[in-house]
Amino acid sequence: MAFAQRLSQRSLDTRRRVPQQWAAQQVAQFERKCEAATDRGGLSASHDCQRFKLMPVLEDDPNREAFRQALLQALQHHGFSRLVVIKEWGSYLTERDERLTIKASWDGLAEAPGCGPADGGAGNGSGFVGSCGICQEDRPLVALAPCGHALCQGCQQQLRGQPCPFCRQPVQGATRGLFMD
């Protein structure tokens, strides 16, 4: 392999590795905030992540979405009742300084059926986390039967007795989560 190819490969590896490393650091900080909120009796927490000030090596990366996706992937198995990763910038933030904010809550999970260790935690908040096509929030998704369209559990529960909002087929049921290899 030529020297320039090795350099290119190293750069590509760094661009793949850095978002995961950064996300792990942010999740650790967020977990500490969640624990502190819980110690105060709280049921929610948020954490601001200014990623491009922290990661100048990738500030010009055209694939900035990799940071948001790395956060979602790192948080998907935490089992929050509500999880949102918001990308924001405003008059005080330039595009270079755009920020991701993690917001999560865990209210109602202590009493929720199917969330205990006996069933492996396969209750609310489990499965693949993705953007719901209805509320546009990043939450654990469920699949409607028989059509297979995916949406978050909260929106699915509001549809009881109504047809699929995407294809209008009658809904006969829904999965408890959406799991992908």
Automatic annotation (TrEMBL):
Keywords: Metal-binding, Zinc, Zinc-finger. One of its GO terms (molecular function) is zinc ion binding. Signal peptide: none annotated. Residues 132-168 form the RING-type domain. SMART domains: RING. Coiled coil: none annotated. This is RING-type domain-containing protein. It comes from Symbiodinium natans.
